[in-house]
């Protein structure tokens, strides 16, 4: 991208910071409700984070490949990057800092955040290189409608009608169990399961379309972005009446609502930063310029902190939390939040250091 759009880097950085915030509380038993995912149907602020990132992946794909044509060399680079992301995700699942240094292969979880990002990136980039914007819209509509019809109306082999509830009468869980078996997050669902990856690709395609709009010569982009986002949110909540908003399923209504909100927020940030020139949140922007690196390191170090024992019945994480953050004067939820905020600040600092050293690690 010859000229970076600061608002995109800023939103990406805020999203990464939010990912780290919700993934590293001091105590999982004491977390404020907005920092947890919805139990099943519904939407919390935490449920916005991953779709926002996939939405931004789509915007980045547009700018990275807008001047490129489909070729063997381009496809190779797309495939290599996708495999790197998937490989990093699997490494996070396999690695443990204590002997034997690998988790049990019999039950290791195969899906994951980086794995889904890798798959979504590959498919979205391939579609963008081969389809015009009208075709991309048609694919998106077809996938969202087809996903709804399949999950809601196609009977199981034994004739049982499906539901949008948890197992057993849920197509997403049924297929995950058949294909992944024990290699899932939970026996009754995996939030990064197989079927949900299809509508997740649409989330990224919508990002591509927003990137194309940002790059156009149209006027009043910020206002139009907010308006388009509002339409997406309204359509998503209307669809919620028959196909509930659900992150675990990555329901079609979830796609519209989250992409709509992402578009609205991007429009506001675009107006403030790129139109008016009122710069803010530089630390987030720096982290956003090395987003995958920051996220990967945060996940890896968090796992190390949980696995390495310190004393009796404690690990690095619990020792740091209980020693530095737990006080009688502080509510348990607040102590847990303070720990998470401290971790976020550390990784924002890392993003700043990498920026100052002109280090930009492309995965």
Automatic annotation (TrEMBL):
<keyword id="KW-0472">Membrane</keyword>
<feature type="transmembrane region" description="Helical">
    <location>
        <begin position="193"/>
        <end position="210"/>
    </location>
</feature>
<feature type="transmembrane region" description="Helical">
    <location>
        <begin position="222"/>
        <end position="242"/>
    </location>
</feature>
<feature type="transmembrane region" description="Helical">
    <location>
        <begin position="48"/>
        <end position="65"/>
    </location>
</feature>
<dbReference type="GO" id="GO:0016740">
    <property type="term" value="F:transferase activity"/>
</dbReference>
<feature type="transmembrane region" description="Helical">
    <location>
        <begin position="108"/>
        <end position="129"/>
    </location>
</feature>
<protein>
    <submittedName>
        <fullName>Heparan-alpha-glucosaminide N-acetyltransferase</fullName>
    </submittedName>
</protein>
<feature type="transmembrane region" description="Helical">
    <location>
        <begin position="337"/>
        <end position="355"/>
    </location>
</feature>
<feature type="transmembrane region" description="Helical">
    <location>
        <begin position="283"/>
        <end position="306"/>
    </location>
</feature>
<feature type="transmembrane region" description="Helical">
    <location>
        <begin position="248"/>
        <end position="271"/>
    </location>
</feature>
<feature type="transmembrane region" description="Helical">
    <location>
        <begin position="136"/>
        <end position="156"/>
    </location>
</feature>
<keyword id="KW-0808">Transferase</keyword>
<feature type="transmembrane region" description="Helical">
    <location>
        <begin position="10"/>
        <end position="28"/>
    </location>
</feature>
<dbReference type="InterPro" id="IPR012429">
    <property type="entry name" value="HGSNAT_cat"/>
</dbReference>
<keyword id="KW-1133">Transmembrane helix</keyword>
<feature type="transmembrane region" description="Helical">
    <location>
        <begin position="85"/>
        <end position="102"/>
    </location>
</feature>
<dbReference type="Pfam" id="PF07786">
    <property type="entry name" value="HGSNAT_cat"/>
</dbReference>
<feature type="domain" description="Heparan-alpha-glucosaminide N-acetyltransferase catalytic">
    <location>
        <begin position="4"/>
        <end position="167"/>
    </location>
</feature>
<keyword id="KW-0812">Transmembrane</keyword>
